[in-house]
Each structure stands twice: as structure tokens, then as C-alpha cells.
Amino acid sequence: MLKKVTISLYTMLLIVMAAATIIEKIKGTDFAATAIYGSWWFTVLWALLAAAGAAYILRRRVRYFPTLLLHFSFLVILAGALITHLCARQGMVDLRMGETTATFYVKDSRSGITEERLPFKMRLNKFDTKYHTGTNAAADYETEFTIIDGQQMIPARVSMNKIFTYRGVRFYQASYDDDGQGSVLTVNSDPWGIAVTYTGYGLLFFALIYMLFDPKGAYRRALRSPLLKKGTLVALMLIVLAPAQGNAQRVLPRQTAEAFGRLHILYNGRICPVKTYASDFCKKINGHRSYRGLTPEQVLSGYIFYYSDWCREPFIKVKNGELKNDLQLGDYCTLNDLFSPMAANGYVLGQYLEDYYSGQNDEEHRQAADLDNKVMLLMQLREQSSLKMLPYTEKNGATTWYAPTDTLPKSIEPQHALYINSVFHLMAEDAQAGAFDRIDAFISKMARYQKRCGGSSLPSPMQYKAEIINDSVPFATILFIVNITLGFVTLFFFIYRLTTDSQRHSRTRAVMLWRGWHFVFALILILSFLTLTAALAIRWIISGTIPMANGYETMLTVAWIVQLIAIIMQQRFRIVMVFGFLLSGFFLLVSHLGQMDPAIGRVMPVLNSPLLSIHVSIIMMSYALLSLTFICGLLGLFLPSQAAELQALSRVFLYPAISALGIGIFVGAIWANVSWGTYWSWDSKETWALITFMLYAAAIHTESLPALNRPRNYHLYLVLAFLSIIMTYFGVNYFLTGMHSYA
């Protein structure tokens, strides 16, 4: 009876949390926080599950130390969460320059905003925004203030990821006033809840790691299973289509355009080669890195110097949908196609955009907004407002990059102002006249000007070379083709071995053939891994931060982790090589798709944290391992004769995946507490990550759930559980709301 109650409460919580994320999307975050996550019955549901689980463990007289420690850590974490829920106070304090305040504001969904007193006074001394050199991209926000506690004057400073604590009250940088004369800090007082919760995290981390290394544990038994010596695989499919080639409008000669591409530009909040901007320009508007045999730099130069010609070029990609049909556009349209004297204000997208910004957010109007963004990029290029290629360093050392059409400050020396305003106009005249030798001279002079006036804002030579390599070599495209192709080749060998099992002589020949080729496959896998390592290292050099800042980079990282696992395990478990090729190829294919290839940019200050990097990398490792259990599950369902062997292999991946997922989730909680002042906010991705953890954790409770000992049941459960990962990684981004929703 107690077992059924525990399972029922466990299942009920999973359903409630999943439903809450959907309700949050429909009703809003405040409603979900009040009606569900902050309600008394949700707290009671967790308390009942904790009590029932503890009673069940005591009744079964469990004596295995890692199991007891693991479940005890969950009780401690829940106790800390309860203390925080009941006792913690959190609000905002608004500081203005030179003014003293002793109050902070607490927002409550029931009673609204209330004012409460601090046990001391605060006075703002200075607020400062730190920028990346030569750009307007914020690197950090910093507040200096004084705490006045009786006769004591305590100097204090907070910034992103750097908190200040006094008398049990913690202060976090939250926001600032537009005029730069005020700063908004988060105030958090939770001395007991955080201490208890962090203790629970520490116990959990130790238990999850110990579970993997305990010689008497279930994971070590799984590694010793004789069934791991067998196995097979069934495949995925891939179709690659190539774009057509043809002739295009006037452009600069390839050599001249390449020289232009080696100049620097302020783009996406950082200084990078024009080649990077040109590549992104082509991908965002046309969907491809190049166009009809022309390089990205040539295409960009065409729109800069031969704009009227290129307005007639069908360069703009149009997505399929109602908008395309209504406007009778092809797969690609010209800029002129979108302007007509018959349309409102001459712009055929005008009415669609007016409706879109009035609240019509259906697919057709979203397509119109997307197409309009492409048009705006072209218009900015025509006006040259996006060509911030001309730096000037003031006497105080501050460097600003200007476009030819920018309004220049009076402090700029006249000869510099004249050069900034006229250089592109002179180059355009030479381009129209075909005087490309003169354009080459202008480019050489501009390169010297940038080096002389760019100051410390210019990237280092190593960063510059790394960016050129990154723009020139499509690492993800090459590697996904190689890895998926090799995945099918290695699949052939496994199928060949299966079909010759019944004939001893043929079977021996198949084994010998596999051993002969195994070295070649392993070498290619290692070379692919080293190439991907180089690609990630290049992106790290360019951005200065670990390459996990966006969906494109995390996909590369997951592929890297999968290949690393395959290299380590392939000698003992030969089937892992097939998994390594196919899975890494799949992740690289996803990264290849244009939807997840944003430019490398400056990371938001709050995201530039080692804790966040650890959190993301461990979570990605977990997802990579769980992807392997998913493939094992599919194979186990379609190949019943191999189901037991695949179950044994799946367990080898499952235990470290659960450990990595648990550690990753709660390292993220620690980072959130350091950065935001709250370690758990029931954000949609947090909630679905917890759901995923709980779903997969059930799969290792085979003594309590003996049905999962049967291979078919086990594989079916893990295949269905993988849907939670899809929801966590993609569903939250594209369908739900929250801080992690970045689609």
C-alpha cells in the first residue's frame, strides 16, 4: 500500500509540474506562481511525497549507504526549500545618487507591492556601466554604495555575479535607471534556508558521484555484465540537397573583395573581420554562406557599391506559407518585389506589419515580420549605417567606431571627420568607374587607419586569425557529413556480422573483417574529434568565453562529448563507435541548420560566469548520454533478440547520465542564487529539467519497479522518457515561456 501511495504521489507531481508550465504559457507567470507553485497544496504534495518515500525506505530496511545518503539529501533540499518559502524575504531597493534610503519593496501577487524597512540605511555613491573596449556592448554593471549602521559606515560594491552580504542580507545587481544616476538592487534575506539547501546540494553531489564508483553498486555491476560483449544497431536516414548555381550582378573582383573582408567592423557588439559580417549577411538574408559562386564579401560589396543593380537580384529567401502565396512570391525575391506603388505607402509588407504590431501574431504575420527584418538589413546597408568600420580614439583613450553616415562629435579632428564621412563615397565612385586598383589602395589605407586609430579595441592577431578560419571552414557541415556517413558504414559491418552468425566460418571472417577495419574507423573518429576540438577552441579564442553561449555552440559541445565518450569506450564496447558516429553526426547536422547558427557575440554580463559554464556543460553531457539510451531503446524494441544486451549497454549510459543531470541542475541552482538571488524560480526549463531527472531516476528503481527489469518494458519506458528531453531542450524554447526560452 505504501509503495502504491509513493508511486501515485510521484506521478501526480510530475503531471502537476508539466501542466503548470503549460498553464503558465496560457495564464502568465504570475498566475502560475500564485495558483500552483506558491500554493499550499503544492507544498503539501511535496511534503507527502517526502514522508511517503522516507517511510517506504524505512519499511524496506534499506541499508545501502549511497541509496540512504542520496534520498536523505533530497529531504534536506526540500527542507531548505520549505524554510526559504516560509522565512525568506526578497525585494528590491531603488537607490538614487547621493540619496539615503532605509526601505525596500516587496512584490506579492496577493497584496501587491509593500514597503518594508531595512535594519540599516543605504546611500548610492556611484553606478557605472563597463563596456567592452571600442563597443557599446556592456561588459558589467557595478554599483558602489555605503551602508550606514548606526555610527558605522561600511563601503560596499556589487556587480553581476558578485554579491555583497551584510548582517545576513545579500545584495545583487538587478537593474539601473536610464539616466545612469540610479541603481536597482535585489535584497535577499534567507540565512537559514540557503545554508540548509546548500548542505543538501553537497550531500547530493557526493552521493551521485559515489554511486558511480562504489565497487558494490548497481553501476559497477552493469559494467561487469557479460551481455555488453554483444550488440547491434539500426540506422537513421539523411538527404542533402545542393543549391543551384548561376550568374549574379556586378561585384568587386574576388581578390579586392577578399582584401575588403579582412578589414575590421563593429558588428554584433564586438570588433570582427568584415568577412564575418558578410557571411552572416548572406546566411540571414539568403540562407546560404555564398551566392551563385560569389563569396560573401563579393555579395556584400555588391550591395554596398552596386545597390541599384542588386535590388533586382532574387537574393532574399522567402519561407513557405500563406504570405508567400498571398504576395505570389517565389522561393527567392528581389528587393524591388517588395515595393509597389499599388501598396500602402509603397511597401507591400506595410499592412501586414501594422497588423502584426497591433497584436496579430499568427504565422503569416510572423513571416511578414521576418521578411521585413531582412529588408531592414538591406536598407541599413544602403544607408551605410551598419558599416561601423572607422574608429577614432579620444584623448582619454575611449575608442568609438563610426559609420560614414554617423553624426560625429565636435571633438574629432577635422581631417579624421573628413576621412570618415567621405571614404566610402570615393570608393563607390571608383567602383562605378571600374577603377579597382584605386579601391585596393583605399582598402590598404583603411587597414592602416584602423590599426592606428582602433587602439586596444582591435582583436588580437590570434583572435583575428581564428575568426578568419572560423568563417572560411564550415566545420559543422564537413563533420556531420563525415560522421553520419561513417555511422552507416560501421552499421553495415554490424549487420554483416549478424547475418553471418549462423555460419561459423562466415562469422569468423566477419569478425576478422571488422577487426581489420576497426583501427581505420577509430582513427577517423579521433580525427573527427580533434577537428571538432579545434573548432570549439577557435570559437573560444574569438569570444573569450567557453563556447556554450547559444544553441549552435551547445550542439557542437554535445557532439564533442558524444565523440569523447565513444573514443573512451569503443575499445571495450565496439558498438559504441557506431553510436558515436551517428549521434555526433546528428547533433552536428542540427548545428549545421541555419536556424541555430547565430553570430558569435558578447555574452551578457550575468552569463559570464564559470558556474554557468559548468552547469551547461554537465547538462549537455547528460543529454548526450541519455540520447544513447534512447537509441538503445529504439534498437531494443525493433530487435527483440538483442534487447537484453542493449538493456545492459543502456544502463552503462543511464547511471552517469542521471548523476550528470542531477549535478548539472543543482549547480545551475547555485549559479542562479549567486546571480539572481533565488536558487529555484520554477522557470519552465528548470521545471522540465526536474521532470526529466525524476522520470529517468525511476528507471534505476528496478527493485521497487520490477516491471522495468524486463528488456521490452525498460526500452519502451526510456524511449518515452526521451520525450521529456525534447520538451526541455526544444519545447521550452519554442512553445513555452520563461528566462530559458530563447527561441
Automatic annotation (TrEMBL):
Presence of the UniProt keyword Transmembrane helix in the record: yes
UniProt KW keywords: Cytochrome c-type biogenesis, Membrane, Transmembrane, Transmembrane helix
Record's bilayer topology term: Multi-pass membrane protein
Localization: Membrane
Main location: membrane
A GO MF term: heme binding
Domain of life: Bacteria
GO BP term (any one): cytochrome complex assembly
Domain ResB-like: 67-185
Cellular compartments per GO CC: plasma membrane
Transmembrane portions of the chain: 36-58, 65-86, 192-213, 225-244, 473-496, 517-542, 548-568, 575-594, 614-640, 652-676, 688-708, 715-736
Protein name as annotated: Cytochrome c biogenesis protein
Protein species of origin: Prevotella lacticifex
